[in-house]
Amino acid sequence: MTEIPDARAYRGYADLARAQTRGRDYEIVVERKPESRIAVIAPHGGGIENGTSEIARAIAGVDFSLYLFEGMRPSRNYLALHLTSHCFDEPECLELIAGCPYVVAIHGCAGPEPRVLLGGLDVKLCAELGVAIDAAGVPAFTRGHRFPAVHPNNICNRGARGRGVQLEVTESLRVADTSAFVTAVRSVLLSLEDDTDPDASRS
Fold it and tell me: Can you tell me the distance from the alpha carbon of 174 to that of 119, in angstroms, rounded to the nearest whole number?
């Protein structure tokens, strides 16, 4: 049996692409909405962190740009394809988010209780999303967890303003009804489209 490369050894997308084959082991989906300033991304979609592609697609809807990096392997997608967020530099993703002031990255984490752990350098947006998610009946935490996402090279922070938001969604929520969570996130993001000066109001 061929040994599967461990994604923890990858320094970036180039290493992953040498070890894995697009169209067989993974696929990339990019749906651009040029009129929107928001990108919703799932860098560990498909079989890597189950449910994150579906959540990202539901949040993006027809309004926001969407990026998915999706594991397609029959097994062990996480081991072979989980490129850590501060090393995630896939060119199509970087090109998309370079023109977006707001980037929201959807990730999956372990957890027996439905909850969302928020991080990223866009502290104001992180707080607004946390309040909305919590009000929708899903416990949301913006501090005191192990996913702060404050590394400047974290993919959520590589948009036009150099700061974004990361949402770590526990597995118990990802396999449940996510409609209230999705609606809460969308409501906040839709309000951003009317914000003519993002740096003034969300610095």
Answer: 18
Which ranges in 6-161 belong to alpha helices (H)? Answer: 13-19, 52-60, 77-81, 91-97, 123-135
CB 97 within 8 A of CB 178: no
Asked if residue 43 lies in contact with residue 93, where contact means CB atoms within 8 angstroms, the answer is: yes
| CATH fold group of domain 7-194 | Aminopeptidase (3.40.630)
Task: Tell whether the torsion through CA atoms of 88, 92, 95 and 98 is positive or negative.
Answer: negative
The amino acid that residue 177 corresponds to is D
User: How far is Cα of residue 51 from the mean position of the Cα atoms in its chain?
Assistant: 12
Distances (CA, A) of 121 to 28, 165, 196: 25, 7, 20
User: Residue ranges per domain, the chain?
Assistant: 7-194
pTM: 0.94
Q: For the chain, how many residues are written?
A: 203
Tell me the chain's radius of gyration from C-alpha atoms. Answer: 16
- Condensed to tens digits (0 to 9), the pLDDT of residues 93-138 reads 999 999 999 999 999 999 999 999 999 999 999 999 999 999 999 9
Q: CA-based angle 8:12:16, to the nearest 5?
A: 70
- Give the pLDDT score at 162: 98
Q: How far apart are CA 70 and CA 48, in angstroms?
A: 7
